[in-house]
């Protein structure tokens, strides 16, 4: 399967170790520039490649144990992305108080927040439904 677009030399798939290594090199190049120095197209490409790499990693390097609760999964994603609670609340478009209530189990996740958790923190929809 072809994993480059001949016109743009863009990585289209990450299905082999070589494609994974190449995508990681490109990601590292973007990260070395720093987010403030990236254009909107650069940021979009970084996100696209990150998702391809994440899918490859989930298939080939699965996490040994999945967190048992949604708050634990949110905390794991915060750790993985090096996000503080304040930053996570901004990413999700909710108040810090609401996030704190979700993390402590005082508030349940509604459909809108479930969608944001899936879209912004890349938590699997099936997992959210199972643990919410």
TrEMBL record:
Cross-referenced Pfam families: HTH_3 (PF01381)
Listed GO MF terms: DNA binding
Chain segments annotated as coiled-coil in the UniProt record: none
CDD domains the UniProt entry points to: HTH_XRE
Domain HTH cro/C1-type: start-end pairs: 73-128
Superkingdom to which the source organism belongs: Bacteria
PROSITE patterns: HTH_CROC1
Protein name, as recorded: HTH cro/C1-type domain-containing protein
Natural source organism: Spirosoma telluris
Record lineage: Bacteria, Pseudomonadati, Bacteroidota, Cytophagia, Cytophagales
